[in-house]
Amino acid sequence: WYCNMVVVRLPEDGCLVYSPVLGPDSSIESVQAEFAKYNLLPVRVVVVPTPQHHLAIAEYQRLFPEAFYVCGKASGQMQSLTKKRRDLRFDGKLRPPGRVCDGVSINSSLDKTQDSINLFPIMEPSEIPLSAHHPSGGGYEELLAVWSELASSSENNANSIFDVCILDDNRTGEIVLLHKPSKTLIVSDLLYKSCRDIVGPGGVSHNYSAPEWFAKGQDELFYDPRMNIENASVMDSGEANERPRTEPSVRPLLPSYRTHPKARTIDTAGLKISLERILAWDFKRCLACHTDPIAGDEARKLIKQAWGFV
Fold first, then answer.
1. What is the pTM of this model?
2. How many CB atoms are located within 10 Å of the residue 3 CB?
Protein backbone atom coordinates (compact mmCIF):
# COMPACT_ATOMS: atom_id res chain seq x y z
CA TRP A 1 0.00 0.00 0.00
CA TYR A 2 1.32 3.42 -0.93
CA CYS A 3 1.67 5.93 1.88
CA ASN A 4 4.03 8.65 0.69
CA MET A 5 5.05 12.14 1.62
CA VAL A 6 6.75 14.72 -0.57
CA VAL A 7 9.84 16.58 0.63
CA VAL A 8 10.90 19.71 -1.26
CA ARG A 9 14.35 21.21 -0.81
CA LEU A 10 14.00 24.97 -0.38
CA PRO A 11 16.39 27.48 -2.01
CA GLU A 12 17.76 29.08 1.14
CA ASP A 13 18.00 26.06 3.40
CA GLY A 14 15.86 23.30 4.84
CA CYS A 15 12.77 21.73 3.35
CA LEU A 16 9.00 21.77 3.05
CA VAL A 17 7.21 18.53 3.97
CA TYR A 18 3.87 17.74 2.33
CA SER A 19 1.64 15.15 4.03
CA PRO A 20 4.15 13.94 6.64
CA VAL A 21 4.50 10.23 7.32
CA LEU A 22 6.60 8.15 9.67
CA GLY A 23 9.50 6.00 8.51
CA PRO A 24 9.37 2.31 7.50
CA ASP A 25 10.04 1.46 11.15
CA SER A 26 7.05 3.64 12.20
CA SER A 27 9.34 6.16 13.89
CA ILE A 28 10.04 9.84 13.33
CA GLU A 29 13.71 9.36 14.19
CA SER A 30 14.34 7.39 10.99
CA VAL A 31 12.78 10.24 9.02
CA GLN A 32 15.05 12.74 10.76
CA ALA A 33 18.06 10.58 9.90
CA GLU A 34 17.09 10.60 6.21
CA PHE A 35 16.62 14.35 6.27
CA ALA A 36 20.07 14.75 7.80
CA LYS A 37 21.61 12.32 5.31
CA TYR A 38 20.43 14.42 2.37
CA ASN A 39 21.08 17.78 4.06
CA LEU A 40 17.37 18.67 4.18
CA LEU A 41 17.28 20.03 7.71
CA PRO A 42 15.84 22.14 9.15
CA VAL A 43 12.22 21.31 8.43
CA ARG A 44 10.80 24.78 7.77
CA VAL A 45 7.17 24.17 6.74
CA VAL A 46 4.86 21.17 7.14
CA VAL A 47 1.74 21.16 4.94
CA VAL A 48 -1.11 18.88 6.05
CA PRO A 49 -3.18 18.75 2.85
CA THR A 50 -6.47 17.23 4.11
CA PRO A 51 -8.16 16.59 7.46
CA GLN A 52 -7.31 12.88 7.14
CA HIS A 53 -3.54 13.38 6.91
CA HIS A 54 -2.86 14.14 10.56
CA LEU A 55 -1.70 10.82 12.00
CA ALA A 56 2.03 11.65 12.17
CA ILE A 57 1.83 15.34 13.07
CA ALA A 58 2.29 14.93 16.82
CA GLU A 59 5.60 13.15 16.23
CA TYR A 60 6.75 15.86 13.84
CA GLN A 61 5.91 18.60 16.30
CA ARG A 62 7.84 16.76 18.98
CA LEU A 63 10.98 16.55 16.84
CA PHE A 64 10.56 19.66 14.66
CA PRO A 65 8.87 22.27 16.89
CA GLU A 66 10.55 25.12 15.01
CA ALA A 67 8.71 24.28 11.78
CA PHE A 68 5.52 26.05 10.69
CA TYR A 69 2.44 23.82 10.42
CA VAL A 70 -0.24 24.60 7.82
CA CYS A 71 -3.58 22.85 7.28
CA GLY A 72 -6.67 23.56 5.21
CA LYS A 73 -9.91 25.10 6.44
CA ALA A 74 -11.91 22.08 5.18
CA SER A 75 -15.70 22.65 5.28
CA GLY A 76 -18.95 22.37 7.14
CA GLN A 77 -19.00 18.65 6.29
CA MET A 78 -15.51 17.95 7.59
CA GLN A 79 -13.85 19.77 10.46
CA SER A 80 -10.53 21.44 9.90
CA LEU A 81 -7.64 20.01 11.86
CA THR A 82 -7.53 23.13 14.01
CA LYS A 83 -10.78 21.82 15.53
CA LYS A 84 -10.32 18.08 15.03
CA ARG A 85 -6.84 17.96 16.59
CA ARG A 86 -6.78 20.62 19.28
CA ASP A 87 -3.73 18.97 20.80
CA LEU A 88 -1.68 20.07 17.79
CA ARG A 89 -0.35 23.51 16.92
CA PHE A 90 -1.34 24.90 13.55
CA ASP A 91 0.23 28.24 12.70
CA GLY A 92 -2.11 28.92 9.79
CA LYS A 93 -4.83 27.42 7.65
CA LEU A 94 -5.57 27.90 3.97
CA ARG A 95 -8.98 28.44 2.44
CA PRO A 96 -10.17 28.99 -1.13
CA PRO A 97 -10.52 32.68 -2.01
CA GLY A 98 -14.29 32.40 -2.37
CA ARG A 99 -14.96 30.28 0.71
CA VAL A 100 -15.44 32.84 3.46
CA CYS A 101 -16.47 30.36 6.14
CA ASP A 102 -17.37 26.70 6.52
CA GLY A 103 -19.96 25.84 3.90
CA VAL A 104 -20.52 29.43 2.73
CA SER A 105 -19.29 30.79 -0.60
CA ILE A 106 -19.23 34.20 -2.19
CA ASN A 107 -20.11 34.56 -5.84
CA SER A 108 -16.60 35.43 -6.94
CA SER A 109 -15.39 31.87 -6.30
CA LEU A 110 -17.69 30.65 -9.06
CA ASP A 111 -17.17 33.57 -11.43
CA LYS A 112 -14.91 32.52 -14.28
CA THR A 113 -14.37 36.16 -15.22
CA GLN A 114 -12.77 36.95 -11.87
CA ASP A 115 -9.37 38.61 -11.78
CA SER A 116 -6.41 36.31 -11.20
CA ILE A 117 -5.90 38.01 -7.84
CA ASN A 118 -8.93 36.11 -6.56
CA LEU A 119 -7.43 32.73 -7.45
CA PHE A 120 -4.85 32.73 -4.68
CA PRO A 121 -5.73 30.86 -1.46
CA ILE A 122 -6.07 32.91 1.70
CA MET A 123 -3.89 32.15 4.74
CA GLU A 124 -5.71 32.67 8.03
CA PRO A 125 -4.75 32.15 11.68
CA SER A 126 -6.17 29.23 13.60
CA GLU A 127 -9.45 29.99 15.35
CA ILE A 128 -8.23 27.88 18.28
CA PRO A 129 -6.04 30.07 20.53
CA LEU A 130 -2.68 28.59 21.35
CA SER A 131 -2.35 27.47 24.94
CA ALA A 132 0.24 25.97 27.24
CA HIS A 133 -0.57 22.43 26.12
CA HIS A 134 0.30 23.16 22.48
CA PRO A 135 3.85 22.43 21.25
CA SER A 136 5.99 25.56 21.35
CA GLY A 137 7.34 27.33 18.27
CA GLY A 138 5.86 28.70 15.08
CA GLY A 139 3.43 31.60 15.04
CA TYR A 140 1.02 33.07 12.51
CA GLU A 141 2.84 36.33 11.81
CA GLU A 142 6.14 34.51 11.44
CA LEU A 143 4.49 32.00 9.09
CA LEU A 144 3.12 34.77 6.88
CA ALA A 145 6.62 36.12 6.28
CA VAL A 146 7.91 32.69 5.25
CA TRP A 147 4.83 31.73 3.22
CA SER A 148 4.90 34.99 1.26
CA GLU A 149 8.34 34.01 -0.05
CA LEU A 150 7.32 30.49 -1.00
CA ALA A 151 3.79 30.66 -2.42
CA SER A 152 2.31 32.61 -5.30
CA SER A 153 0.21 35.61 -4.43
CA SER A 154 -0.90 38.82 -6.07
CA GLU A 155 2.28 40.46 -4.74
CA ASN A 156 4.67 37.56 -5.37
CA ASN A 157 3.85 35.48 -8.42
CA ALA A 158 6.88 35.46 -10.70
CA ASN A 159 9.44 34.78 -7.96
CA SER A 160 7.51 32.23 -5.93
CA ILE A 161 8.45 28.56 -5.68
CA PHE A 162 4.93 27.14 -5.41
CA ASP A 163 1.58 27.71 -6.99
CA VAL A 164 -1.14 26.69 -4.55
CA CYS A 165 -4.73 25.62 -5.18
CA ILE A 166 -7.39 24.57 -2.68
CA LEU A 167 -9.96 22.10 -3.99
CA ASP A 168 -13.07 24.21 -3.43
CA ASP A 169 -15.30 21.17 -2.95
CA ASN A 170 -16.97 22.17 0.34
CA ARG A 171 -15.53 19.00 1.80
CA THR A 172 -11.84 18.18 2.36
CA GLY A 173 -10.48 21.40 0.85
CA GLU A 174 -7.35 19.53 -0.26
CA ILE A 175 -4.22 21.65 -0.61
CA VAL A 176 -2.55 21.03 -3.99
CA LEU A 177 0.90 22.40 -4.84
CA LEU A 178 2.83 23.00 -8.03
CA HIS A 179 6.59 23.09 -7.51
CA LYS A 180 7.38 25.50 -10.30
CA PRO A 181 11.16 24.98 -10.64
CA SER A 182 10.75 21.23 -11.30
CA LYS A 183 7.25 21.45 -12.83
CA THR A 184 5.98 18.86 -10.35
CA LEU A 185 2.32 18.60 -9.32
CA ILE A 186 1.98 17.54 -5.66
CA VAL A 187 -1.36 16.07 -4.55
CA SER A 188 -2.61 14.03 -1.63
CA ASP A 189 -5.98 12.35 -2.31
CA LEU A 190 -6.82 13.80 -5.71
CA LEU A 191 -5.61 10.50 -7.19
CA TYR A 192 -5.51 7.05 -5.57
CA LYS A 193 -3.95 3.78 -6.62
CA SER A 194 -6.77 1.28 -6.27
CA CYS A 195 -5.88 -2.39 -6.59
CA ARG A 196 -7.72 -5.30 -5.01
CA ASP A 197 -4.47 -7.31 -4.94
CA ILE A 198 -3.10 -4.98 -2.23
CA VAL A 199 -3.83 -6.65 1.09
CA GLY A 200 -2.66 -5.42 4.48
CA PRO A 201 -2.36 -7.25 7.82
CA GLY A 202 -6.11 -6.92 8.32
CA GLY A 203 -6.83 -9.32 5.45
CA VAL A 204 -8.93 -8.91 2.34
CA SER A 205 -11.63 -6.93 4.14
CA HIS A 206 -9.06 -4.37 5.36
CA ASN A 207 -6.88 -3.75 2.33
CA TYR A 208 -5.80 -0.32 3.55
CA SER A 209 -4.25 -1.35 6.86
CA ALA A 210 -0.50 -0.98 6.50
CA PRO A 211 1.53 0.54 7.99
CA GLU A 212 -0.10 0.13 11.38
CA TRP A 213 -0.01 3.83 12.33
CA PHE A 214 -1.73 4.72 9.05
CA ALA A 215 -4.49 2.15 9.53
CA LYS A 216 -5.84 4.00 12.56
CA GLY A 217 -7.37 6.69 10.38
CA GLN A 218 -9.02 4.52 7.77
CA ASP A 219 -12.13 3.14 9.49
CA GLU A 220 -14.47 5.94 8.45
CA LEU A 221 -13.01 6.36 5.00
CA PHE A 222 -13.01 2.74 3.85
CA TYR A 223 -14.71 0.42 6.33
CA ASP A 224 -17.79 2.28 7.54
CA PRO A 225 -20.75 0.81 5.60
CA ARG A 226 -22.43 4.22 5.68
CA MET A 227 -19.64 5.49 3.42
CA ASN A 228 -20.31 2.87 0.76
CA ILE A 229 -22.35 3.80 -2.29
CA GLU A 230 -23.97 0.35 -2.43
CA ASN A 231 -25.40 1.20 0.98
CA ALA A 232 -26.76 4.60 -0.05
CA SER A 233 -30.37 3.48 0.36
CA VAL A 234 -29.54 2.04 3.78
CA MET A 235 -27.87 5.31 4.72
CA ASP A 236 -30.96 7.25 3.68
CA SER A 237 -33.23 4.97 5.72
CA GLY A 238 -31.15 5.38 8.85
CA GLU A 239 -30.47 1.66 9.18
CA ALA A 240 -26.73 2.20 8.78
CA ASN A 241 -26.50 3.68 12.27
CA GLU A 242 -27.61 0.34 13.69
CA ARG A 243 -24.90 -1.63 11.89
CA PRO A 244 -21.37 -2.19 13.25
CA ARG A 245 -18.67 0.18 12.03
CA THR A 246 -16.37 -2.77 11.39
CA GLU A 247 -18.64 -4.40 8.83
CA PRO A 248 -16.59 -4.82 5.64
CA SER A 249 -17.44 -2.46 2.82
CA VAL A 250 -18.66 -3.94 -0.44
CA ARG A 251 -16.30 -1.60 -2.28
CA PRO A 252 -13.38 -1.10 0.10
CA LEU A 253 -10.74 0.24 -2.27
CA LEU A 254 -12.12 3.68 -3.11
CA PRO A 255 -13.88 6.15 -0.83
CA SER A 256 -17.44 6.46 -2.06
CA TYR A 257 -17.27 10.25 -2.36
CA ARG A 258 -14.53 9.73 -4.95
CA THR A 259 -16.71 7.47 -7.11
CA HIS A 260 -20.21 8.83 -6.70
CA PRO A 261 -21.20 12.48 -6.10
CA LYS A 262 -24.37 11.57 -4.20
CA ALA A 263 -22.65 9.72 -1.37
CA ARG A 264 -21.67 13.01 0.21
CA THR A 265 -22.58 16.46 -0.97
CA ILE A 266 -19.73 18.28 -2.66
CA ASP A 267 -19.63 21.65 -4.37
CA THR A 268 -19.21 20.45 -7.95
CA ALA A 269 -19.13 23.99 -9.38
CA GLY A 270 -16.36 25.11 -7.05
CA LEU A 271 -14.49 21.84 -7.52
CA LYS A 272 -14.67 22.15 -11.30
CA ILE A 273 -13.04 25.58 -11.20
CA SER A 274 -10.30 24.24 -8.93
CA LEU A 275 -9.62 21.31 -11.24
CA GLU A 276 -9.52 23.58 -14.28
CA ARG A 277 -6.93 25.73 -12.58
CA ILE A 278 -4.78 22.72 -11.67
CA LEU A 279 -5.00 21.31 -15.20
CA ALA A 280 -3.93 24.70 -16.58
CA TRP A 281 -0.65 24.51 -14.66
CA ASP A 282 2.55 23.56 -16.49
CA PHE A 283 3.60 20.27 -14.86
CA LYS A 284 5.67 17.42 -16.26
CA ARG A 285 5.16 14.89 -13.47
CA CYS A 286 2.91 14.27 -10.50
CA LEU A 287 3.73 13.03 -7.00
CA ALA A 288 0.82 11.77 -4.90
CA CYS A 289 0.47 10.29 -1.43
CA HIS A 290 -1.17 7.07 -2.60
CA THR A 291 0.27 6.31 -6.05
CA ASP A 292 3.56 5.76 -7.82
CA PRO A 293 5.08 8.86 -9.45
CA ILE A 294 3.07 9.70 -12.56
CA ALA A 295 4.14 11.40 -15.78
CA GLY A 296 2.47 14.75 -16.35
CA ASP A 297 0.38 13.76 -19.36
CA GLU A 298 -0.81 10.60 -17.62
CA ALA A 299 -1.71 12.59 -14.50
CA ARG A 300 -3.81 14.99 -16.56
CA LYS A 301 -5.61 12.06 -18.15
CA LEU A 302 -6.26 10.36 -14.80
CA ILE A 303 -7.54 13.55 -13.15
CA LYS A 304 -9.98 14.11 -16.00
CA GLN A 305 -11.08 10.49 -15.85
CA ALA A 306 -11.47 10.31 -12.06
CA TRP A 307 -13.33 13.60 -11.77
CA GLY A 308 -15.32 13.45 -14.99
CA PHE A 309 -18.62 13.61 -13.10
CA VAL A 310 -18.05 17.26 -12.15
1. 0.77
2. 17
